[in-house]
Each structure stands twice: as structure tokens, then as C-alpha cells.
Design goal:
single chain, 342 residues, mainly beta, four-stranded antiparallel β-sheet, 3 helices, 24 strands
């Protein structure tokens, strides 16, 4: 075992350096308990190869929310904190992906879509009455190569299409003031894998491009500030198209980094992180906008510089990108934690 992997193993097992006397330890969730957000929902494969959803509560307790043979991902917590929307299905067959909701109090689950297309990336309207999501379907409801954005009532009824383009529109998120939806799109670049950030009114009118990419840059997973005037997103800055990952283990340096950026509604972009090799990257403001939480993968490589794993961590930082700290220490979810919301 390499020294790096040994360190991870010790962290996961909680091995103490003391022999006869217990070692006093600080609360591992102390930083999390200082934050204004009350809960985090995330996907992890710690107990299941398919990937399940987990809930981190304010007291540091982590509870498994789903227990089945589906793959669940892209969780979105409702504005009142009572429910989570997500997509679930067979990870090897994305045509089975449907939109679900889960009541965090009762544990009651509801399936909102039922078809043979990819439905994913749901998000709630501020009043909880509607859900916006991306769907890879054509006008007749058949599978299509690019996504458009749809809204529906929170019981799956009253489906309405908001975008209509032969180019991809996906990753939607409703603004906290209810007036706008932010999303990523290739309608300007007209090239798969070259996404940029757009906003539109909540009825789909007046789309506006906020970011401009070059080379193989690609912008993903936009999220709003609480006052609906700023948007965080993650920009891929590698030297080849971001989804060309068949040989990732050896070509990983060409497929990184992903860095956190912020853009205002006038299109002014600011880069907040400056990694040269970090992977992944969902980014979210805290409820009071005093912090930003983002996901990062620190790769583990072997003697041939091939990726053999990674530390999947949640990193807290100030709004200007300074004072980056792990929200909580490495543990059983460090190797597989992915999409999250708080």
C-alpha cells in the first residue's frame, strides 16, 4: 500500500496514534455545524455499487435515504427543506432515468416521469409547486441526442416545454425570487461538449447568454445566490472535450481542471479557484451567501502517474475564493461522493 493510500485507510478506519491512552479529538463536524444551512443531501456508493442518496443533518448524523438497485443522483432540496427531487434509474441505461421526489419527513417517494428518455437534473420552484428538469426527448417524446428544459407540477402533471432547440439545454435551476431559470446550453457554440451559461424567464422567454467559452472550455451546473443576482458555475478547462473519458486513468491531465467561477446578470465572470488538476465541481452558495461550498476530486495516482482513485471532498470557501477548508474530514464517503445540495 502506498503512503498516500495508507493515510486514507487510517482516516477511514479512524485509527488512533495513541497506544494506551485515548486521544482527545475535536468534533469532526464543527465547521459544518457553524454553517446556516440545515442539511446536505448527496450521492455516494459507500454502501451500494449503484449509488444511493444520503442525508447529513446538523448534528453530524448521516442517514441513508434510498435503498434499492437503482442509481440515484442530482439531488435538489426544496426551498422549504422538506423534500428532495432527484433522478433515478439504471446507471448503465440512461433511458431508464426518471424524476422522483422524496419527502424527508415521511420517507414517502413519488415517481413523476415514466418514459423511455433521459430525464434528469431536477430543481424546485421557490414555492415548491413545480419542478424544472432536463429531458432528452424530441417533439414526439422519443429519445433525442440533446436535452431541452421542461417544467411540471410537483406531482408530475401539467408538463410544459420551455426550450426548443436542436442543441443541448440542461442543468436548470430556478432563481430564489422565482422569476428566472439558469441553465447550460450549446446553442451558441453549436458543438457538443462546449456548454455556456444562460438565463431565461421562468416561462422560457428571453434567453440571455452570460458566459463565453473558448477552446475546449465548458460551463456546467449553474446555481443562484440567495438574492438572485449572481450565479456560480464550474468551468472545465482541459485540453480535450470533457466527456472523452475512455482512457481517463492515463490521460487525466488533459481532462482537468474544473474550476469554480461566478457570473453576474450582466455577464461579468470571475474565477474563484485556481486548481491545475482538480476534477468534478458542483458549486453552491450558503443560505446567507457568506460561504461557497463546492465539490472537488483530488486524484490518487500510481508510480506511472495513472489515476487509481480520488478523494471526493466538499470544500468550503469565502465568496472571493479564499480560506478553503474541508467541510468535514475524510470518511467512508470520501471515495465516491458526487452530486449534492444543501
Amino acid at each position: 500500500m502506498s503512503p498516500l493510500r495508507a493515510v486514507l485507510a487510517l482516516a477511514i478506519l479512524g485509527v488512533s496514534c495513541g497506544v494506551n491512552e485515548p486521544v482527545a479529538q475535536e468534533d469532526p463536524y464543527a465547521l459544518w455545524k457553524e454553517q446556516p444551512n440545515e442539511r446536505i443531501v448527496f450521492m455516494s456508493r459507500a454502501d451500494s455499487p449503484e449509488g444511493e442518496l444520503y442525508l447529513l443533518e446538523k448534528n453530524g448524523l448521516i442517514t441513508r435515504l434510498t435503498d434499492n438497485d437503482r442509481h440515484e443522483n442530482n439531488p435538489a432540496i426544496s426551498f422549504d427543506g422538506s423534500s428532495v427531487a432527484f433522478n433515478g434509474g439504471d446507471e448503465g441505461n440512461q433511458l431508464t432515468w426518471e424524476i422522483y421526489t422524496l419527502d424527508l419527513t415521511t420517507g414517502e417517494e413519488a415517481q413523476l416521469t415514466d418514459n423511455d428518455v433521459i430525464d434528469a437534473h431536477p430543481d424546485w420552484s421557490p414555492d415548491g409547486a413545480m419542478i424544472v428538469f432536463g429531458s432528452f426527448r424530441d417533439a414526439e417524446g422519443n429519445p433525442f441526442s440533446a436535452a431541452d428544459i421542461y417544467v411540471m407540477d410537483n406531482n408530475g402533471s401539467a408538463l410544459v416545454q420551455l426550450t426548443d432547440s436542436s442543441w443541448e439545454n440542461n442543468d436548470p435551476e430556478w432563481s430564489p425570487d422565482g422569476t428566472m431559470i439558469v441553465f447550460k446550453s450549446t446553442r451558441n457554440t453549436q458543438q457538443a461538449g462546449r456548454e455556456e451559461i444562460y438565463t431565461m424567464n421562468s416561462d422560457g422567454s428571453d434567453p440571455l447568454r452570460l458566459t463565453t467559452t473558448s477552446g475546449w472550455q465548458s460551463d456546467h451546473d449553474p446555481s443562484w445566490s440567495f438574492d438572485s443576482d449572481q450565479i456560480l458555475f464550474t468551468r472545465f478547462e482541459g485540453s480535450r472535450i470533457w466527456f472523452d473519458t475512455a482512457s481517463f486513468a492515463q490521460d487525466w491531465e488533459e481532462l482537468t481542471p474544473w474550476n469554480v467561477h461566478r457570473v453576474d446578470l450582466s455577464g461579468n465572470v470571475e474565477r474563484l479557484t485556481n486548481s491545475t488538476d482538480t476534477g468534478w465541481g458542483v458549486t453552491l452558495f450558503s443560505a446567507d451567501a457568506s460561504r461557497i461550498l463546492f465539490g472537488a476530486i483530488d486524484w490518487i495516482t500510481d508510480s506511472d502517474n495513472h489515476v487509481i482513485g480520488g478523494y471526493h471532498r466538499l470544500i468550503l470557501m469565502n465568496p472571493d475564493g479564499s480560506n478553503q477548508r474541508r467541510l468535514f474530514p475524510d470518511g467512508e464517503h470520501t471515495g465516491t461522493l458526487e452530486y449534492f445540495d444543501w
